[in-house]
Specification:
By secondary structure, this protein is of the alpha/beta class. The chain has 11 helices and 17 strands. Helix 5 runs parallel beside helix 8 and helix 6 runs antiparallel to helix 7. It starts with a strand and ends with a helix. Bound molecules: L-homoserine.
């Protein structure tokens, strides 16, 4: 019998990337899927490969949800908050698979990233775990990147600087960035055509425009700019995105307090459309050669690609545009740090909508439907 899967939030950015992947990998034929909606109850569901997927069900109708073996939601934390516990109270015993961060800290939930924690996932299912969350995008991408070092228990601590694309903040920010780019260009369009105009004059016009505006929809401008803060303020000098890094990594790896890996970061939003990049300074537990490190990294999973640490290869290949819409995990700038022989640097890039959000959920769905 095919499992009944209720899909909520399939029209958002993460949800639609996930649905596209499910179509590509023929996952829909393996399940009995029902599409739910928070805003268009009774409308027609999607038509995929000429197959109509029925009428959209109400995503708040607990009696409909309770019929599902698996609930897959990309609707966000507010939805999970409103529905998950009420459904549990009714005695629903299905699997909850969630892209949002709402249940990640819950002790009954497992954060899924099966190329890294498959054994932990398997044991948790055997013990009766029913709640699974996808990890934060930078955390999942870091674990996919450095999996070879984590699995060998070689990492003592990491400092990471992130360079996160605007699509991580939501689909509107892709539009905002394009509009900002257009506005900046328009402000100097005529001057750019003149041969004898000082570039500093042009720079002054765009910089003044950046200073004087609040971006679009009150989001600070990102074209020609960056924002070194992502998500909420904990009041102690850290952003929520930075706190997630250490907590979720240790939870995914199922490390006890005494074995905890120290991870500190500064998370930065930059004017890139898609793909998150991260620059790591890693303290290893022992001195290992770069050759051995590369071999551990590349052998961990088939998606890791190592770019040679030289100028030509780096500027051509170690860039977000080479990764966008692929499952590749690019690693480069791998070298010993001047901090000492146990310190190395690594720069990684991955598509945060794929490995950072939808792909771990799609793969987890496939694990669940085989049970
Ligand atoms: N928190 C991420 C970001 C998005 O703001 O880029 C998804 O995990």
């Amino acid at each position: 019998m095919k499992k009944k899967v209720g899909f909520i939030g399939w029209r958002g950015l993460v949800g639609s990337v996930l649905l596209d992947r499910m179509i590509l990998k023929n996952d829909l034929s393996k399940i009995n899927i029902k599409f739910f909606t928070t805003s268009q109850v009774g409308h027609n569901g999607p038509k995929i490969n000429n197959i109509k997927f029925g009428i959209l069900e109400n995503a708040y109708d607990l009696q409909k949800l309770i019929e599902m073996d698996i609930i897959l939601t990309c609707q966000g934390s507010e939805y999970t908050k409103k529905v998950y516990f009420n459904l549990k109270k009714l005695g629903w015993n299905g699997f909850w698979l969630d892209a949002s961060s709402y249940l990640r800290q819950n002790s009954n939930s497992i954060i899924v990233l099966d190329p890294v924690n498959y054994n932990f996932i398997k044991k948790s299912i055997e013990k009766g775990c029913k709640t699974f969350s996808g990890g934060n995008c930078t955390v999942s991408l870091m674990l996919m990147s450095l999996g070879g070092l984590f699995s060998e228990n070689l990492i003592k601590s990491i400092f990471v600087s992130t360079y996160q694309s605007v699509s991580g903040a939501g689909s509107n920010y892709i539009k905002n960035l394009l509009l900002e780019m257009g506005n900046l260009h328009s402000s100097v369009k005529n001057d750019l055509k003149k041969n004898n105009i000082s570039i500093l004059k042009i720079e002054n016009v765009v910089s003044s425009l950046l200073k004087s505006n609040n971006g679009i929809n009150n989001f600070p401008p990102l074209a020609g700019n960056l924002i070194p803060w992502i998500d909420e303020d904990d009041g102690q000098g850290k952003s929520k995105e930075e706190i997630k890094g250490e907590f979720e990594t240790n939870k995914i790896l199922n490390l006890s307090k005494s074995k905890k890996i120290i991870i500190d970061s500064v998370c930065v939003r930059i004017g890139v459309f898609r793909c998150h990049s991260q620059s790591f300074l890693i303290k290893l537990k022992k001195t290992i050669s770069i050759k051995e490190i590369k071999s551990l990294l590349i052998n961990h999973n088939k998606w890791v690609n190592i770019i040679n640490n030289d100028k030509i290869n780096t500027i051509k290949n170690l860039v977000p545009s080479m990764v966008s819409r692929t499952l590749k995990i690019l690693l480069g700038r791998i070298r010993k740090s001047s901090f000492g022989s146990k310190y190395i640097t690594v720069f990684s890039i991955g598509d945060q909508l794929l490995w950072g959000a939808s792909e771990p959920l799609r793969r987890m769905l496939n694990i669940l439907i085989k049970l």
